[in-house]
Structure formats: C-alpha cells, structure tokens
Amino acid sequence: MFRKIFPTTNVVKVAQRCIYRNVSTTVRPRICIVGAGPAGFYTAQYILKHLDNSDIDIVEKLPVPFGLVRFGVAPDHPEVKNVINTFTKTAENPRVRFLGNLSLGKDFTLEELRERYHAVLLTYGAEQDNTLNIPNETLQNVLSAREFVAWYNGLPGFENLNPDLSGKSMTLLGQGNVAVDVARIVLSSIDDLKKTDITEYALEALSRSRIDTVHLVGRRGPLQAAFTIKELREMLKLSNCATKWRVDDFDHVEESIPNLPRPRKRITELMVKSLAEQQQNKTPPNSEGCFLPIFFRSPVNFIGTDKVEAVEYVANKLVEGRALPTDQRETIATDLVCRSIGYRAVSVDNHINFDDRKGCVYNAGGRVLKQNLTGSDQTIDDIEDKYEIGLYASGWLATGPTGVILTTMNNSFGVADTVCRDFNSNTIRLKGSRPGLDLSGRTYVSWNGWKAIDGEEVRLGLAKGKPREKLTCVKTMLQIASNASD
Questions:
Q1: Are the C-beta atoms of 194 and 465 separated by less than 8 Å?
Q2: SS3 of 463, please?
C-alpha cells in the first residue's frame, strides 16, 4: 500500500532549456499537488517533463484518483475517460507518489505543506453549487445537477440521494453540457445504460423512472446556448425521444446564421434544421420521451407545498447580449428540478487567499496573491511583494468552473510552466531539502492501493457486463487498499 520516500541526488536540472543549477546542498525540488483531478494530473505531467529531478506528491481527499473524469463525465461517454490512461502513466512515474484519503484542512494544513515542500499547487476544483436564491428553493425534489451526476456516477456520499423519479416531468435550469448530460441519462434506454459504468443503484432507479418529459430552460436565446454541438447531436439522435422546440424562440435566428463564428454557426444550423423537421412533422412517432429546450426564461419562484409542483418564470428579452426581465410570466408544471447554474470552489484552509464572491483563489496566472502586499507601492511588480512564493493554483479553483477538460489542460500546463520558470530563475530558492508530508499515523491510499480498488471494481463490473462497478463506500475502499502489496 505504501510507497518509499524518494532518494536524493546532487544535481537538479530544471525547466525547458535543461539548465543545471548548482546548489550547496543535496537538494531535489519537492512539490505537492493538492487534488488528483485533471488539473492536478496535467500539472504533474508538465512538471515531470520540464523540471528534472523534481519529486511530486499528489494528495487527494478521496481514496481514488481522477476527480471529475471519474465522477463528472457521463457514463455513456467512455471515450472522454481515455485521458485516465495518460494520468496513469504520470502516476506511475517513479518520481510521483499518489496519496489518497488525505484532506487539506483536515489531515494537514496549508502551512504544514509549505514548510515540507518547496512548492505547493492547489488544484482541488470546485465542489459547491451555485444557488438561485429564489422562494421555495428548499422544497423537496429541488436538487442540483451536480448532486444528480454525483449520484449516478458513484461519488462517495451521494449513494443515498435517492432522487424521486416517480413523476412524469423533470426540469433542468441551465443549458450547459452538464444539464444536457442529465437529460440524456434520464431519457436514455436502460439497455443502453446497462453497458456503461453507471452505478447499479442508479440503473435500478432509472429502470423504474416514470419521467418522460425533460425541460431544459435557459435565460438567454438559441444564439447563446451553452451546450456544445456534440451534446445536442446526441440528444437529437436519442432513440425513442423527440426534441421539441418553441418556434417563437427562433425569431430572426436563421437570418443571423451567416454572420456567426463557425462553431456557433454550426450548432445554430443544427437547431434550425431540427426545428424545420419538427414543423414538417418529421419527429419520431410514438416517442417514449420528449426533450423540450426552452429559451428566454429565468426562474423566479418554485411552487409547491411539500415538494415542487411547478416553476414560475419571468420572460426575458435580450439587450446587447444580456437577459433583461419583462412583465411577462409563465408557469410550467414539473415533478423534479435540477439546478445547473455552475459551481464554486470553497476555501478549506484559513491561510488560502480566497475570493468568496467569485468562489476561487486570488491568483494571477496561477501564482497565488498575497493577502497583504508587502511593498511600499501596491502596484509593485516585484514577485516577492505580490505573490506567495512557491504557492500556486490551477484548474477550476483558479479560474472558476469554465470550459472542458481541454481548457483545464491548457490552464494547468501554463501554471506548471510558471512553476518551472520560478525554480529555474531561483525565485523559489532551494536552500535545503524538504521532507514531504509526514504520513505517520495517517491512513492513506498509495497508487498500488488504488490499483487494488480498480481491480475489484473491474471484477464486479465484469460479472454484470459493465466496464466496472464503482465502489462508493470509503471504508470498503480502504480495506481493499490496505491489503495491497507495495
């Protein structure tokens, strides 16, 4: 289960130009990455390539790695999860240790990490939902899409969510890819889902689901829809499901197409084509499900007594791309609501310079800003006056929850390059070796421990004709990992 402490050598070669640094002591750059999701692994991947002789610990609060790739990517999108193969190569590099089941703010502090590593990168993502702050938002059956996704993807702590699928209709507030993923999973056939790594308890619940209508509601119009063309194509091709557009939502849209940038042009053309087929009665007859995108609506009230029964909306008009409310209201009945209006990070340690308003770490290009500037001029460019030397953030914790995995990769590579340059320029001074995290008395999962968990999940899945059956009980994971040899 446990991996050995890294050896040290006399010479450290850093950064892209492979410049050797002369140091007076035997020192290797020791780096801690907090968070084993895409941001963490992409950062580690880049540093391994460009900062020779560096040693990296990737610390993760869960016993298992991969973050949103494991718990966020839809189960019917296995191709997106192929990036795990690249992450695995990074984790199995002899200069890397994976330390699962250890939490910043619980098992150790940021100050402790900064004392025990030359550099610390915070990459633990955004795990809290944005809320609407409208009346009756706490009614039963008002959930977040994040919770729903965590439930069917097996994130520990959500296995008992038990969403009520006994009604006929579901409403998704927000039109991003996460919302479309939820719609597709709910409206997909069980025969298709049973071939994926969706959790068995979710599969069983969805097999009993009576939901046949899903509304996808956005505050702006078709030209501002946040979902991508891939997700829309999948919905339009979904078996036994008809997509029905509101004709009035597309006023003057077709005439705008020639002037649109190519990606927006393609997705708009697809929507307009689907609408035309709908008007020509080419929608599938006898469809079991119905997907209803609705534009120009913002929720203002949830209606119901014990549980949600309807959503009241204000109709919007677009003014210079902004959705402004009108006097028109509309109420649409629904049995289940999922907010899908974005995420925010949380501060897990009081020493993190955190922007509570934006829900991310104060940083510039990945360097974490000091809470109080130390220079006489607060516009000073001296790195030591503006930034916490050796402390960085990347991924959604640094940027907010924007983009896709490729976006996170580019951001993380950029931050990792800054780390390498800071070592190379002696901004991070290698005055002495650092011991890394003190693991004595701490129950953690090594990479071999994860491989044992992975093997058990694959074995369980094989018996059911699935790629894997995810374990959701942390205690069970730790027991399996503890039996793994190092």
A1: yes
A2: coil
